[in-house]
TrEMBL record:
Family statement drawn from the similarity comment of this UniProt entry: Belongs to the peptidase M17 family.
Annotated InterPro entries: Leucine_aapep/pepB, Macro_dom-like, Peptidase_M17_C, Peptidase_M17_N_1
Entry superkingdom: Bacteria
Species for this entry: Cognatiyoonia koreensis
Protein name: Leucyl aminopeptidase
Pfam families in the record: Peptidase_M17 (PF00883), Peptidase_M17_N_1 (PF21337)
GO biological process: proteolysis
């Protein structure tokens, strides 16, 4: 699906965006009609103003009050599906970053996942507003579409091999290179934990390694690609397994972000590492209290086979660090503890660098991609040290679960490092975000890259 702006046309229907506190900005010719229909500028509400023939002369879209706008995002995007088919343009009421958010939100509201059945017909189109970078917004929407499509595809059609196919397709689109290590070759190539987690599946585990760019600072993205997670021998209950097609949401988000970076031709050297596995159950599945030796040489006691994401990420992060990149960012649907801490709408992230944290937080607020910094809390290090091995993959008690998982990952990286523990799923429809797979944190990272890498 291509989410793009409509070509400019003289017949485009004007939209006037009205703040609830400034109803006096309603065009004079629409004032009486607005009063008659009780239009108060509530967020996302639409009112069609007809001309003398009954055709649409203009549209009013409510922007809510300042207080209400703080309690949500992409309010304007609700108009995309509320209005009749046609071509529209924003005539007044929004400027600057609010205008960019509105334009992006309209495109994202156009998204449907229609791989398995035809969805509703096309929706209203928007002309790119004057003063925005339309190409950049379309590229961001395309990256988000890729992420959503990958997450929404069930594991029957999105296993490790299919995730590899999607990575190669993205590489072909942008002239990147992909190296792939599959099955038992992971052992000979010294990726023991990726192999161990994925070996019980009938679908071979693999490590995907995409490289792009030949100049500028080096950025390595590492995405968790667990295409389905049964929990292994510590099998999940059915209710917890129901959404595990999204456990490759970290990989999907890094690929969406990679598309944005490459399509925008940012002056950096990009590497994307994806350990792609399925955590299944068979006679050769790894067991609780097994001790694994990682690529880095650190030993890991397995106290829960359902804490497998950090194992595959650890080997990939070790490989990333061997190149001494300027920055490593991992993204993973890693812990339920993160959801308990901040819910489904916020992407918690971890970094030891205050300047990096400030840059990401500022960008997140700017581009309506909310994040929240959580700490690499050093006193909790002892919680991941079981005594019998260097590390414990699932400390008992569950206290600070997302922090201990982040501390576990940090043990495998010496380079500047940022970790995102995302959810990757929109549990209920919201403006510009239908129920289903969703990108989290990618737009904030993209906006922050000039500061993070001094581009």
């Amino acid at each position: 699906m291509s989410l793009t702006f409509a070509a400019a046309t003289a017949d485009a229907i004007p939209i006037h965006v009205i703040d609830a506190e400034h109803l006096d900005t309603i065009p004079k010719e629409a004032t009486d009609w607005a009063k008659l229909h009780g239009f108060k500028g509530a967020p996302g509400t639409t009112l069609i103003i007809p001309d003398k023939t009954g055709a649409i002369a203009m549209v009013l879209v409510g922007n809510g009050s300042a207080t209400v706008r703080k309690r949500g995002r992409f309010h304007f995007a609700q108009a995309a599906r509320a209005l009749p088919l046609g071509t529209y343009q924003i005539a007044s009421g929004l400027t600057g970053q609010a205008l960019e958010e509105a334009a992006l939100g309209w495109l994202l509201a156009s998204y449907t996942f229609d791989r398995y059945r035809s969805e509703s017909p096309d929706i209203a189109h928007l002309v790119a507003p004057d003063g925005i970078d339309a190409k950049r917004i379309e590229i961001i929407a395309a990256g988000e579409t890729l992420t959503r499509d990958l997450i929404n595809t069930p594991a029957s059609d999105m296993g490790p091999a299919e995730l590899a196919d999607a990575t190669r397709q993205l590489a072909r689109e942008h002239g990147a290179e992909v190296n792939e290590i599959v099955g038992d070759d992971l052992i000979t190539s010294n990726f023991p934990m990726i192999h161990t987690v994925g070996r019980a599946s009938s679908r071979a585990p693999r490590l995907l390694d995409l490289r792009w760019g030949d100049s500028g600072p080096t950025l390595t993205l590492v995405g968790k690609g667990v295409c389905f997670d049964t929990g292994g021998l510590n099998i999940k209950p059915g209710a917890s397994m129901g959404l595990m097609k999204k456990d490759m949401g970290g990989a999907a988000t890094t690929l969406g972000l990679a598309h944005m970076i490459m399509a925008l031709d940012l002056q950096l050297r990009l590497r994307v590492l994806i350990p792609a596995v399925e955590n299944s159950i068979d006679g050769n599945a790894f067991r609780p209290q097994d001790i694994l030796t990682s690529r880095k040489g650190l030993t890991v006691e397995i106290n829960n086979t359902d804490a497998e994401g950090r194992l595959v990420l650890a080997d990939a992060l070790t490989l990333a660090d061997e190149d001494t990149p300027d920055l490593v960012i991992s993204m993973a649907t890693l812990t339920g503890a993160a959801r308990v801490a901040v819910g489904p709408d916020l992407a918690p992230f971890f970094t030891d660098d205050d300047a990096h944290a400030a840059a990401i937080s500022a960008s997140a607020a700017k581009v309506a991609d909310p994040v929240w910094r959580l700490p690499f809390h050093d006193p909790y290090e002892e919680m991941i040290e079981p005594g019998i091995a260097h590390l414990d993959n699932a400390p008992k008690g569950g206290m600070a679960g997302c922090i201990t998982a982040a501390l576990f990952l940090r043990r495998f990286v010496e380079a500047p490092y940022i970790h995102f523990d995302i959810y990757g799923w929109q549990p209920a429809p919201a403006p510009a975000r239908p129920k289903g797979g969703v990108g989290m944190g990618a737009r904030a990272i993209l906006d922050a890259l000039p500061e993070l890498l001094k581009l």
